[in-house]
């Protein structure tokens, strides 16, 4: 079952930063930092930080850590569904049964084509997945 969580996040902008990553993101509940090239990217990176953290650690209750922020900071909530995040990274093979015409089977077998890899590649291409 999926569950959506939201973590308080502090985003600051540093126009003196020498790299493109001018947005610094702090997630108090995880005592973690990340960066972004834009405000939207900073939020995406915060979500990714929380998701990556959740792969190896239990997530704490959100909003339990007290923090202060400067007036110039943006304080926002960043949401994530940790279960969906984990599923999106799951590369565990899943067995599927399918049917194809005999002549395609014979031609592909004679060429040594890996059916599983070919099907996975075709679905990935069809869905525009990385």
Summary of the model, kept short:
The protein folds into 2 domains: about 5-90, Double Stranded RNA Binding Domain (2-Layer Sandwich), CATH 3.30.160.250; about 95-130, no CATH class. It has 4 helices and 4 strands. Helix content is about 35%, strand content about 20%.
Count of discrete structural domains: 2
Shape: elongated
Indicate the CATH class of the largest domain.
Alpha Beta
- Approximate helicity band: 25-40%
The profile of the biggest β sheet is: 4 strands, antiparallel
Measured on Cα atoms, how large is the radius of gyration? 22 Å
Instruction: List how many beta strands DSSP finds.
Output: 4
Notable characteristics:
HicB family protein; alpha+beta; 2 domains; 130 residues; 20% strand; 4 helices; elongated; Double Stranded RNA Binding Domain; four-stranded antiparallel β-sheet; single chain
């Amino acid at each position: 079952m999926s569950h959506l969580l939201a973590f308080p996040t502090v985003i600051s902008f540093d126009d003196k930063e020498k790299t493109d990553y001018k947005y610094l993101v702090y997630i108090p509940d995880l005592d973690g930092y990340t960066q972004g090239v834009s405000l939207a990217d900073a939020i995406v990176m915060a979500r990714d930080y929380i998701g990556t953290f959740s792969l190896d650690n239990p997530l704490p209750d959100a909003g339990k850590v007290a923090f202060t922020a400067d007036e110039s900071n943006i304080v926002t909530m960043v949401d994530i569904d940790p279960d969906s995040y984990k599923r999106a990274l799951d590369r565990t093979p899943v067995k599927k049964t399918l049917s194809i015409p005999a002549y395609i089977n014979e031609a592909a077998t004679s060429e040594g084509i890996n059916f599983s890899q070919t099907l996975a590649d075709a679905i990935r291409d069809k869905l525009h997945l990385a």
